[in-house]
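Notes from hallway chat w/ T.B., transcribed later so I don't forget. T.B. wanted the structure written out for a chain they're using in a teaching module, and asked if we could keep both sequence and C-alpha cells in one place. Agreed to drop them here.
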Amino acid sequence: MVCFVVVVPMAMLVLGPLGYNVGKVLTTVILFAYDKLGWLAVGLLAAILPFMISMGMHKALVPYAVTSISEMGEELLYMPASLAHNISEGGACFAVALKSKDEQLRSAAISAGISAVFGITEPALYGVTIQRKRALYGVVAGSFVGGLTVGLTGLKAFVAMGPGLAGMAMFVDVNNAKNIVWAFVGFGVSLLVSFAVTFLIYKEDEPAGKAENAQVPDMQEATLQGLTSADSVVASPLQGTLIDLSQVHDEVFSDGILGDGMAVVPETGELFAPVDAVIDTVFDTKHVISMVADNGAELLIHVGMDTVKLDGRFFEPHVKNGEKVKAGQLLMKFDLAEIKKEGYEMATPIVVTNSDEYVIKKAANGKVKTGSPIFGLKRKEESE
C-alpha cells in the first residue's frame, strides 16, 4: 500500500507526462531525420527502440503511425523499425539460451525469444536483454542492420500493430507483391545478425564465489579443543579446508538461516558420514543429504553452492532415505573436477538445523582430513 501511495501519484503526475513529452520531442527528431535521411532513419530508430520501449517513450510514436495509416494508408518508419527490433530481441534471446549454463535463464530466454519473434517483446526486453549488456548490444546491432535493410527496400506497413511472425500480413501490399518479401528479408536479417553478434560476444556473469575466486589460503591443520565427555563430536565428512559458515557465498548459510555449523572446501569427491545417524532425505537433485544423529542433532550437508542447478549431474549417492549409517561410511561420490569446470564454488556447509537446542564448540579453520573433529555438540539443558 505504501508503494502504491508513493509510486502511483509519481507515475501519473511526473514520470508518465515527462516520459511522454520527452518521447514527443524524440519523435519530432526522428521524423525530421526520416525526412532528411530517409532509410537511414529507420535503422537508427530500430537501434534505439529497446531504450525507448524500456522507458515507455515509444508510445509517442503511436499517434504518428496511426495518423499515417489513416490518412495515407501506409507507414514506412515506426512499424518497419519495430519489425527489426522485435525480431532482434528474439535472435538475441536464442543466442543467450544456447550459451547460458543457467537452466532457469535458458528456459526464460527460449520462451522470451519465441514471444519476441511473434511480436511480443516485453518478456525478452525486461527479462533477458536489458539486464545483460552484451545481449543488448546484439539487439542493437540486429535492429540497426535489419532497420537499414527494410529502410533501403522502402518497406510499408498497412496495419498499426506489433510486428512479428503472427502479423506479417500487415506488410501485404496489393500493389506491390515484393513488399511482403522484403518484410521477410528484414525479418531474417534481424534474426541472424542479432543472434550472431550476441552469440559471439555474450559471456555469462560468473556466479558469486566461483571456485577460483574462493581460493582459501594455506592454513595449519584445523584443531578442536575444550571438548568434554558430554560433547558429541561431529567429524569432517570431507578432506579439504575447514572454513567458518560466514565465509560461504550464500546468505542462507553465512547468515545462519538454516542453523549453525561449519563448511569444508573439498579436495576430493567423496562424502562420508560425520556421525552415527539415520538418513532422513537424499534430495532428488542429489547434492544435499540430511540426517538425524543418534543424539538427536539434525544435520544437513549441502555439497557446493547453487549446485541444485546441475539437477543431479555429477552426483552419485550411496545411501537412501531411512538407512542407518555409521560415522565414516561413504554417503556420496561426486565429480569434483567437472563441477568446478561448470563454474560452481565447492564450499560444503555442514549445518545443525536444530542448533538452537545445542551449544556448539567449533574447530579453528584449517586443513582437515576425513574424520577429523570439526565441532562438538552438547544439549543446552545438559550444559546448564
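Follow-up for T.B.: Residues 2-37 form the longest helix (36 residues). Might be a good example for the class.
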